């Protein structure tokens, strides 16, 4: 996203602190503090005008994410090949971590009339766990808490390292490690918590697609760190599957995105298992499948490389006018699964937790029941 994923509400260890948001006096509309970092809002969406109130000045509301500003459809895409090299190879069921904002809300609002819909359609689904704060002393234990929980149940967790320096080009989701050396050391500690079971790593949303704001030298340094990160993660746990940032179908053209991804190590099996797209965005699954295959074709590398797609909020596609902040009329997308039936598409994931606000229907990054209910009941 050009300006940022979804605003990041950073949590400390496995217990963060999120301020309550007064939604017209309905403070109970939001969950209590999440135990792991709240999902940031990545790429903005081409959207329909949202009737939701604009965030007040001075609030932490996000600016249009890169995707919002980059809504043009790629024009240099090659015709999609009908013959694809392979189908999904990731085994197992996805893991639902017991600590999340939606589960906090469900546990404390059993009498709310929206409870049944939110509990059954959102809270019961597995979603990614974000690590958006730079806390090297605790990150190993926090990652291990998630991966060991998945291993105990024989399920596959999805984790999101989000601490690259200069993330979000200094926008509302800015933050991360103080420098690339510090980031490399943080990744070492992150990798130490991966364990030995299956795990999916969605590596640094926006880090590649949003690299336009960096100088050529800064971009080369970032890509070198990302390539290193992939190698470190896969060396720490050979069963870890690491995916690199491909943006989304309304952002960079496949050839341009693939060229950057190649520089970031995404074509090397020592660093990468492929790419991810549509994180915190709304583009249709069909558009993302076609786009990801074109990126993979342009990327090169082994036929084993695949893609995972964030389907958490793309049930109605992206708004036509580019609205990015909690746009009206959206709905949940496909249920998370590692069995897509689509060649080279390894999984449909909920990377962005449905109901976590972009900043208009609640404080950025916080779970807002009214927004979750709208998504789940559309």
Architecture overview:
- This protein is α/β, with parallel strands linked by helices and 378 residues long.
- It contains 9 helices and 9 strands.
- The longest helix has 21 residues, at 216-236.
- The chain is globular and about 55 Å long.
- Mean pLDDT is 81; it is low at 6-27 and 32-89.
Strand order in the sheet with the most strands = 2-4-5-6-7-8-9
Give helix and strand order, one letter per element, not per position.
Answer: HEHHEHEEHEHEHEHEEH
Overall shape:
globular
Largest sheet: 7 strands, parallel
Strand content: 5-15%
Q: Summarize the amount of helix as a percent range.
A: 25-40%
Quote the distance from N terminus to C terminus.
26 Å
Count the helices. How many? 9
Alpha-carbon Rg, integer:
19 Å
Q: Based on DSSP secondary structure assignment, what is the total number of beta strands?
A: 9
Average pLDDT, all residues: 81
Structural class by secondary-structure content: alpha/beta
List segments where confidence is low: pLDDT < 50 over at least 5 consecutive residues. 6-27, 32-89
Concise summary:
With 378 residues, the chain is an alpha/beta fold. It has helices at 66-69, 101-108, 115-123, 136-153, 180-191, 216-236, 254-263, 285-299, 369-377; strands at 93-94, 129-131, 155-156, 158-161, 199-202, 240-245, 274-277, 306-310, 345-349.
Which properties best describe this structure?
7-stranded parallel beta sheet; 9 helices; 378 residues; alpha/beta
């Amino acid at each position: 996203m050009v300006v940022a994923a979804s605003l990041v509400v950073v949590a400390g260890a496995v217990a963060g602190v999120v301020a309550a948001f007064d939604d017209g006096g309905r403070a109970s509309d939001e969950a209590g503090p999440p135990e792991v970092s709240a999902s940031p809002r990545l790429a903005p969406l081409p959207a329909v005008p949202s009737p939701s109130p604009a965030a007040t000045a001075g609030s932490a509301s996000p600016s249009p994410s890169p995707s919002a500003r980059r809504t043009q459809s790629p024009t240099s895409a090659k015709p999609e090949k009908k013959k694809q090299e392979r189908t999904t190879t990731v085994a197992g069921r996805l893991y639902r971590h017991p600590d999340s904002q939606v589960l906090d809300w469900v546990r404390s609002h059993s009498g709310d009339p929206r409870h049944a819909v939110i509990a059954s359609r959102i809270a019961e689904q597995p979603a990614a766990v974000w690590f958006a704060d730079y806390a090297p002393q605790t990150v190993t234990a926090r990652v291990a808490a998630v991966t060991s929980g998945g291993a105990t149940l024989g399920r596959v967790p999805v984790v999101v390292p989000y601490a690259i320096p200069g993330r979000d080009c200094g926008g509302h989701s800015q933050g991360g490690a103080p420098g690339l050396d510090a980031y490399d050391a943080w990744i070492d500690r992150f990798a130490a918590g991966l364990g030995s079971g299956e795990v999916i790593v969605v590596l640094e949303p926006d880090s590649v697609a949003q690299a336009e704001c960096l100088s050529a030298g800064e971009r080369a340094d970032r890509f070198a760190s990302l390539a290193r990160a992939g190698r470190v993660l896969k060396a720490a746990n050979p069963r870890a599957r690491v995916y690199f940032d491909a943006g989304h179908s309304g952002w960079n053209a496949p050839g341009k995105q693939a060229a950057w991804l190649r520089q970031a190590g995404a074509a090397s099996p020592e660093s990468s298992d492929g790419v991810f797209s549509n994180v915190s965005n709304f583009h249709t699954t069909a558009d993302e499948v076609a786009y990801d295959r074109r990126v993979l074709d342009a990327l090169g590398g082994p036929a084993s490389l695949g893609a995972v797609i964030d389907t958490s909020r793309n049930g109605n596609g992206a708004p036509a006018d580019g609205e990015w902040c909690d746009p009206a009329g959206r709905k949940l997308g496909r249920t998370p699964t590692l069995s897509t039936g689509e060649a080279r598409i390894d999984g449909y994931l909920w990377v962005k937790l449905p109901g976590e606000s972009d900043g208009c229907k609640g404080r950025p990054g916080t779970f807002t029941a009214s927004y979750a209910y709208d998504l789940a009941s559309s």
